[in-house]
């Protein structure tokens, strides 16, 4: 008789819905002490289906409260991806005394024997996102030529005092402007002949960031996710551009003439940033869907399917003279820590002996060392399974190898090793690794490169060890914290 599965790969500190299918994060907005997460949700199935907006909130970025579905399909179709903003000055006229939330999303309508129709609509909430009213004038924006016309991300552009929408249009993005979120005027199109066109463009975002923390030097960052195409074994991925934006037109930097990936793993897709983070906080917080359209419908979870990345802070830094998007875990996650191992100035042999005593499933590991020697950590391991995370300073690479990480037979391209180039000269090497029931997220050398990968190890594969290092390699710091969450 078969035994009952001991794990459903349920993450401890990452958000996943209690049941059923989830994909993209939507409508991420901070309002009155809560970070809202809406998400592409199919409440009646564990695979993609008629899309609703699911809803969850968090106050600390690791304990999530799931709320009832926010938006359901209607006469205009399914509710595809989009964004939400706080209408502080009641530009929309939807609100009375208090400011409220406005969601801007794609209505996707299936048409028998024809192409589907994608149009943009809005809805508003006067009760902190708990209930929503769809605008009676929906849809508010349509296009005659684009079949793929979706995923509006809206922000207030203070310099030109207008709402700006960036929206995916097949193989480009378009920018629109509005005084009131209801009437939209075309401003510009971007993307022809630049960046990756390996798949349909989806889920764009556009926001300013200081370069090297210098507020005088600001650049705009554009995120564009590109859908899976069977010709590319990487599946769906997210690219970014840096440049200047004047309220209407985005002009890319020279650095952006070659393709630049947000993440070098396989499982960080459709991510965008939170709107309305208070100015005194000042961070640009990001979260992605931790999956890949190549196999998203086949991952081996039961009862639910879909999980988000950890919330991350995005920054711009000059690395090798290029303005580069770097990511680090949102600092709130430090509050979820329970220290399990804390070593300073320890050699590899001693460190390995300590690691061998640990068994952990959901944790953070931070290692710092100054050496050209390659270092490999072997996580979520048992006799049969292991996930290998390595940094080789002499080769200037970081990698995750999930070839033997557990269940992988649901897709031919799931197994494999994912590598990123990093700058390693004249510095200590630094790995921050977040491990959960079914994922690893690796931040190398202060977030210069990130690798996000799903893994499906057996519940008992909890071992931790190290390999390929000289016994006398010294870790100036090696820390392990168990991480708790809201579940
Ligand atoms: C991206 C995406 C979006 C679309 C949504 C549908 O993953 O394809 O472009 O709005 O998912 O669920």
Automatic annotation (TrEMBL):
PANTHER family to which the protein is assigned, alphabetical: EXOINULINASE INUD (AFU_ORTHOLOGUE AFUA_5G00480) (PTHR42800)
Family, per entry: Belongs to the glycosyl hydrolase 32 family.
Domain Glycosyl hydrolase family 32 N-terminal: 14-329
An annotated GO cellular component: cytoplasm
Any one GO biological process: sucrose catabolic process
Keyword Hydrolase: yes
Domain of life: Bacteria
Domain Glycosyl hydrolase family 32 C-terminal: 332-481
Family matches, as Pfam families: Glyco_hydro_32C, Glyco_hydro_32N
The keyword Transmembrane appears for this protein: no
Protein name: Glycoside hydrolase family 32 protein
């Amino acid at each position: 008789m078969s035994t009952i599965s001991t794990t459903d790969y349920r993450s401890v500190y990452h958000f996943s819905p209690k049941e059923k299918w989830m994909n993209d994060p939507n409508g991420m907005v901070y309002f009155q002490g809560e970070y809202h997460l809406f998400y592409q949700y199919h409440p009646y199935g564990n695979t993609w289906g008629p899309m609703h907006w699911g809803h969850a909130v968090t106050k600390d970025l690791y304990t999530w409260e799931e709320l009832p579905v926010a938006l359901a399909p209607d006469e205009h179709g399914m509710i595809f991806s989009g964004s939400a903003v706080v209408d502080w000055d009641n530009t929309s006229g939807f609100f009375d005394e208090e400011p409220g939330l406005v969601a801007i999303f794609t209505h996707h309508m299936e048409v028998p024997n024809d192409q589907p129709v994608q149009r943009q609509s809005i809805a508003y909430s006067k009760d902190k996102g708990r209930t929503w009213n769809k605008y009676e004038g929906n849809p508010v924006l349509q296009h005659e030529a684009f079949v793929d016309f979706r995923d509006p991300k809206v922000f207030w552009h203070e310099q030109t005092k207008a709402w700006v929408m960036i929206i995916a249009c097949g193989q480009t993005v378009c920018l629109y402007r509005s005084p009131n979120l209801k009437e939209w005027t075309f401003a510009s199109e971007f993307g022809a002949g630049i960046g990756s066109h390996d798949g349909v463009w989806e889920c764009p975002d556009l926001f300013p960031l200081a370069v090297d923390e210098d507020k005088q030097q600001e650049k705009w960052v554009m995120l564009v996710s590109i859908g899976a195409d069977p010709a590319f074994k990487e599946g769906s991925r997210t690219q970014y551009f840096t440049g200047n934006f004047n309220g209407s037109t985005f002009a890319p930097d020279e650095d952006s003439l070659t393709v630049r990936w947000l993440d070098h793993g396989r499982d960080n897709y459709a991510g965008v940033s939170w709107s309305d983070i208070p100015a005194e906080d000042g961070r640009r917080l990001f979260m992605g869907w931790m999956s890949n359209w190549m196999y998203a419908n086949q991952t081996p979870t039961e009862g639910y399917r879909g999980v988000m990345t950890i919330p991350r802070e995005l920054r711009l830094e000059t690395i090798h003279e290029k303005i580069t998007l770097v990511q680090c875990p949102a600092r709130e996650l430090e509050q979820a820590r329970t220290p399990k191992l804390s070593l300073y100035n320890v050699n590899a042999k001693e460190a390995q002996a300590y690691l061998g005593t640990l068994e952990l499933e959901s944790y953070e590991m931070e290692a710092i060392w100054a050496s050209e020697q390659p270092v490999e950590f072997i996580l979520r391991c048992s006799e049969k399974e292991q996930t290998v995370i390595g940094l080789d300073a002499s080769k200037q690479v970081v990698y995750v190898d999930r070839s033997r990480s557990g269940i992988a037979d649901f897709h031919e391209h799931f197994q494999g090793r994912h590598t990123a180039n990093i700058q390693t000269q004249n510095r200590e090497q630094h790995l921050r690794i977040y491990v959960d029931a079914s994922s690893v997220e690796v931040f190398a050398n202060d977030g210069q490169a990130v690798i996000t990968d799903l893994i499906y190890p057996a519940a008992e594969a909890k071992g931790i060890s190290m390999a390929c290092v000289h016994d006398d390699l010294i870790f100036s710091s090696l820390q392990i914290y168990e991480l708790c969450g809201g579940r």
